[in-house]
Each structure stands twice: as structure tokens, then as C-alpha cells.
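Researcher: Let's do a round of design. I'm pasting the C-alpha cells now; please hold your answer until I've finished.
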């Protein structure tokens, strides 16, 4: 792999500010982000990327490629938590294995947004329907992870599936990304263009500021990972590569182009640290968030946005050139 790809990615402002956040936490700086601002930045990114995806989707329409890609995304989000669960059961108890499996079967919207920024920087196009793929991939893993816990558990008194479905599909991030996507499809393009200074011109700056906050949070959470053992660390690093490889194989079967294939790989390789923890607090209170949150946020997320994205891009371009 060309080292220049990784160097260019590492020297981009969003990644450098993420690293600054890590360093600030390690040196015990009092730098911090007010919770209200952190929430706004997260909501803005979901709103902006959903709206743009809906606009692009309205242009492309629902052809066979779009429908196939969306179906493939749901299959990927369903398969990953199943095989991950049985691997994790070798080292973790039932509840934590299910929680980690759900975490790695779901996706990270911020990793996806970072990959979109990467594609924009190198001038590679992608389809708006990949935003719909991201939205569809967030919930299946939560439902499957909790189902596996229920199926193998002797305690049948835990929260029922009605609550689980409600939490999975009414989660704020899911509602916002789907709602923005639908609005982007329905609203005429001139109306969308009128708010472009907010949704597009500010996008990279807000992403950069948000990743500073993520660096601070990851630096804080990584301390909790030390008690989880070597297996948790290795799984956090190996799982994204394996899951991304599966996404690559499936995407090649559909003959997706480079940009869409990269985004599919990133979705497969990423792990949730927002939607899944929110849902699991209700559905699986026995699971320890001090394990599955640091695994995804403090290890998998930094790996993907610094090394993973350019690595996946190289693999795709190399295979496409054969």
C-alpha cells in the first residue's frame, strides 16, 4: 500500500484534531467539550449527511443496483452479529457477548461521515443510497444481539421485544438520519441549495470539531479497556478487518464502484458507540458498557479513521485493477 495514502489521511485536519483530543486526555488537560455542544455536533452531522444522501437518492432513483445494495447492507448487518456472538461466547458471558456482537454488527455514523470526507478529498464519487444503507444497518444488529441473549438465557423476565423494537427504531440518531434522508428525497433541489451554506460549507469544519470531542472521549474510555483483557483488544482490531473484508466480497458481487464499495466496507468494519449503547441500556442492563463502549470507541473507531479507511481504499483499487 502506498504510504502516501495513509500520510495524507493522517495529516487531514479532522484526524489531527482527533489525535489532539487523545493527547489532551493523556496529559490530563482540562480541555473538554460541553455536553450540549457535543450533542449538537452529532445531530448536525447526521442531519447534513442524511439530507445530502436523500438529495442524491432522488437523482439516482430506486433502480436494481440501489435495491440490491440496500438489501445487501441489511444482510451484512444481520450476519456479522451472529458469527461475532459465537466467537465472543468463548471468552465473555452471555450478556456481554451479545452486547459486543450488537456493537460490531451495527455501524458508526461518524466513521461513515469521515469516509465520505475522505472520498471528497480525493475526488471519488459515491451514491446517495449509501446513506440509506447506513440508516438501515443501525438497527438489525441490536435486535439480533438481544434476540441471541434471550434465546440462550435461562431468565425470560427481561424486557420484551416490543420495548426492544421501540428503542431500536425510535432512537434519536435513527429517526434523524431517516427523516433527513426522506426530506432530501421530497424537497426540490433549489430548496435544498438554499441551505447549502449550512449543510455543506460548514460540514468539514464541524466534523473536525466533533472529532476533537471524540478524541477526548476515546482517551477517557480507553482506560476502561485495560480490565477487559487481550482478547477484547485483539477482537477490536481484527473484527473490523474481517467484517470489512466480508463487505468487500459482497460488494464485488454487485460490482459496486470504488466510492460505494469503500463506504460499504467502512459500514461493515465500523462499530457503534452511540445507538447500540443507548438501546442496550434498556434491553440488556446486565451487559457492562465499560467493555463494549471502549472496544468500539477507543480502539476500533481510531483504527478505522486513521489506518482503516485508506487501507480499505487501497484494497479496493488494487482488486479493481486486476
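Researcher: That's everything. Go ahead.
Model: Designed sequence:
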Amino acid at each position: 500500500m502506498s504510504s502516501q495514502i495513509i500520510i495524507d489521511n493522517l495529516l487531514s485536519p479532522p484526524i489531527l484534531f482527533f489525535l489532539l483530543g487523545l493527547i489532551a486526555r493523556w496529559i490530563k488537560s482540562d480541555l473538554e467539550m460541553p455536553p450540549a455542544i457535543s450533542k449538537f455536533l452529532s445531530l448536525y452531522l447526521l442531519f447534513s449527511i442524511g439530507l445530502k444522501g436523500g438529495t442524491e437518492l432522488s437523482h439516482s432513483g430506486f433502480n436494481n443496483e440501489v435495491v440490491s445494495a440496500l438489501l445487501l447492507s441489511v444482510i451484512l448487518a444481520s450476519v456479522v452479529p451472529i458469527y461475532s456472538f459465537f466467537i465472543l461466547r468463548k471468552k465473555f458471558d452471555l450478556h456481554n457477548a451479545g452486547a459486543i456482537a450488537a456493537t460490531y454488527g451495527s455501524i458508526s455514523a461518524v466513521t461513515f461521515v469521515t469516509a465520505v470526507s475522505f472520498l471528497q478529498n480525493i475526488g471519488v464519487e459515491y451514491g446517495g443510497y449509501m446513506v440509506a444503507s447506513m440508516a438501515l444497518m443501525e438497527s438489525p444488529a441490536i435486535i439480533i444481539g438481544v434476540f441471541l441473549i434471550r434465546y440462550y438465557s435461562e431468565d425470560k423476565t427481561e424486557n420484551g421485544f416490543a420495548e426492544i423494537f421501540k428503542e431500536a427504531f425510535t432512537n434519536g440518531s435513527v429517526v434523524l438520519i431517516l427523516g433527513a434522508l426522506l426530506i432530501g428525497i421530497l424537497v426540490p433541489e433549489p430548496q435544498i441549495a438554499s441551505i447549502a451554506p449550512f449543510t455543506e460549507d460548514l460540514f468539514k469544519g464541524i466534523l473536525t470539531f466533533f472529532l476533537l470531542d471524540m478524541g477526548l472521549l476515546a482517551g477517557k474510555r480507553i482506560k476502561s479497556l485495560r480490565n477487559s483483557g487481550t482478547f477484547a483488544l485483539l477482537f477490536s482490531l481484527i473484527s473490523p478487518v474481517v467484517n470489512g473484508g466480508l463487505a468487500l466480497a459482497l460488494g464485488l458481487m454487485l460490482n459496486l464502484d470504488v466510492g460505494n464499495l469503500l463506504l460499504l466496507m467502512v459500514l461493515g468494519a465500523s462499530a457503534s458507540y452511540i445507538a447500540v449503547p443507548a438501546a442496550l441500556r434498556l434491553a440488556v442492563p446486565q451487559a457492562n458498557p465499560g467493555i463494549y463502549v471502549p472496544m468500539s470507541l477507543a480502539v476500533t473507531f481510531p483504527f478505522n479513521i486513521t489506518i482503516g479507511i485508506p487501507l480499505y481504499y487501497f484494497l479496493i483499487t488494487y482488486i479493481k485493477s486486476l
